[in-house]
Amino acid sequence: MGRRLQARRETAEGRALLRLTASYLAVFAIVIATLSVLAYTFVANTYRSIVAPALETPEGRAGFAAALRPVLAAIVTADALLLLAVGGASFALARSALSPLRRAREREERFAADAAHELRTPLGAIASMAENAELDAAEPARSVFASIARRALECGDLVGDLLTLSRASEPGALQAETLDLAIVVRHVIRDAAAAPGSLAIDASLSEAIVTGDERRLRQLIRNLLDNALAHAASRVAVTLQTNNGDACLSVEDDGPGVPADAIPRLFERFAKGSNSRGSGLGLAICRWIASAHGGEIVFAGGSRFTVRLPLATPGPAAPLS
Question: In this structure, which topology does domain 173-310 adopt according to CATH?
């Protein structure tokens, strides 16, 4: 799984580098081609002005064409050598252009991690002091202290999510073991169904053995399920099947679906719909967890999200519903 994730990351970075290199090379190639056409035209016109009287005969025209062939060959050869040199320069320029972006991303990740670490301790202390004060307080102060403690804990969870997103989504960030994803999904569904006022959850789960971090996988499934329950009209459907060496988990609700204008930013941090009650980090966390497991999460249309994780032992293929 680690090799698969590393290969994906290297492939993405390589594609970005190749696209930028190709862009630079295309610009240089256009300039070189334009200059070559101008040079050939200039030489041809110069030759034509010198031997103009001879061009009236077939022999003169043949000699003129023969004289221009070495010129054309020399220009093409020079262009090829220039393109090789420019190709190397374009690659080096592309690497140089991407380096500041990579360093800026690393600085952003370090800043988020440092800020999250610094905030978690005081938030935990605020929650503890509020809970202790609540025990000895009378109403309405008790309700106020309870609210303070709850809000501090919620902020602590938010900081924890930011700390997660500040880390690289790689296997080293997980405590992985071999487990049946169906059992993990079933436990999360059971906990969600036990909540007061919970909607109906239809589950169709097949065995899917993966190598993963159970705590993180629970978080991914819980985020998707909470999102579906928040937008469903009456029911939520959860399916788990295996397909082409992957475990395919789909969560769908019968709500109005994701608005078209929200789709491009679905998995970005703090991307929230107009009626969203969350922090806007849920789907970003889901993407982080899926990527760390060597998989992916995609929006499949309507209100359906699908997570693909590599199987520890490839199972029989089954068509997605």
Answer: Heat Shock Protein 90 (3.30.565)
